[in-house]
Specification:
Elements: H1 30-33, H2 40-54, H3 58-65, H4 67-77, H5 83-116, H6 120-139, H7 143-159, H8 162-170
Helix pairs in contact: 2-5, 2-7, 3-5, 4-5, 5-6, 6-7
Length: about 180
């Protein structure tokens, strides 16, 4: 009597996994294991801050597109000014606004990532910056500043909703 081929044989061993040689991930500390998950409110606030941080970068682009008009208006308003002087002054103002926009965007991005990580100091810093933004917008409102301020206010409110408050409380480090 012939047995079917391979009836007594076990299947061949599977090849080793390509990650068998990697060390396991370090275990979480007791504090890290007890951290609450990030709530939707904090994630939504984070993305609002990202949008808000990148929007000032559009200002220098808008200023460049209106450069000739700005020079013309300045020359018409003061007859003692000369065209080349005004053109240089306008370009310096645009360059300054571009540098300022990059610095503000970088700081807001840093604070947004810290908020997402649950750092309360970043939440407070962004709240203070929002208060300043609302103050400046109230003094000199424009469509871009109104939209930017509205985004900042929404992001700030999201950071202080009950689930977000619990998240920030849960992120406090032991002994601090």
């Amino acid at each position: 009597m012939t047995d079917s081929p391979g009836a007594d044989q076990s299947p061949p061993p599977s090849p080793p996994s390509p990650v068998d040689h990697l060390p396991s991930a370090p275990s979480l500390s007791v504090h890290e294991a007890a951290l609450p998950p990030r709530p939707v409110e904090v994630t939504a606030s984070f993305w609002a801050w990202i949008v808000g941080a990148l929007s000032p970068l559009l200002l220098p682009v808008a200023l460049i597109s209106e450069r000739d008009e700005t020079v013309r208006v300045a020359l018409e308003s003061d007859s003692t000014l000369e065209g080349p002087q005004v053109a240089v002054a306008v370009m310096l103002a645009i360059a300054f606004s571009a540098v300022l926009a990059v610095v503000v965007a970088a700081l807001c991005l840093l604070f947004a990532f810290k908020v997402r990580a649950g750092r309360n100091w970043a939440r407070i810093t962004l709240t203070v910056l929002t208060v300043f933004g609302v103050s400046f917008t109230a003094v000199d409102p424009s469509w871009p500043s109104l939209v930017s301020t509205l985004v900042a206010v929404v992001a700030t409110v999201l950071m202080f909703l009950p689930n977000a408050n619990a998240y920030f409380r849960g992120q406090r480090r032991p002994g601090g």
